[in-house]
Design a protein that fits this description.
single chain; mainly alpha; two-stranded antiparallel sheet; 2 strands; globular
Length: 120
């Protein structure tokens, strides 16, 4: 997947700030957790994301050592949902899952201890 910078929506930027204050975790870690939550959801995420006022995240910071695994999981999700795996489509769904994941995480995590509940 050719993508160096990822833009979130304004809503995701705001939610990440609140989640960071609730948990003490950095936005890149929160985004990774949210992305996994979104990939586990049975329905398709909304792909039309307004990222004009959101945050810009660098791919290396966001995905770190998990880059290949995250891209592979996204590709597998696309195949399972009969969605093309060309670069443009992967980028579109990556952004969609990232933003939906932040919303899901925001709704489920009020404090750091709540992260444990996500495992069940």
């Amino acid at each position: 997947m050719r993508l160096n910078r990822i833009h979130t929506s304004k809503d995701s930027r705001n939610k990440l700030g609140i989640l960071q204050s609730r948990t003490g975790l950095l936005p890149n870690i929160l985004c990774r957790i949210g992305l996994m939550l979104s990939l586990a959801e049975p329905n398709l995420p909304e792909v039309d994301i307004d990222a004009s006022d959101g945050s810009e995240l660098h791919r290396d910071t966001l995905m770190g050592e998990w880059d290949l695994l995250i891209v592979a999981l996204l590709e597998e999700w696309c195949v399972a949902n009969e969605i093309e795996t060309d670069n443009d489509t992967l980028v579109k769904y990556f952004r969609a899952h990232l933003n939906r994941g932040v919303r899901l995480l925001y709704g489920r995590v009020k404090r750091l201890e709540d992260l444990g509940n996500l495992l069940s």
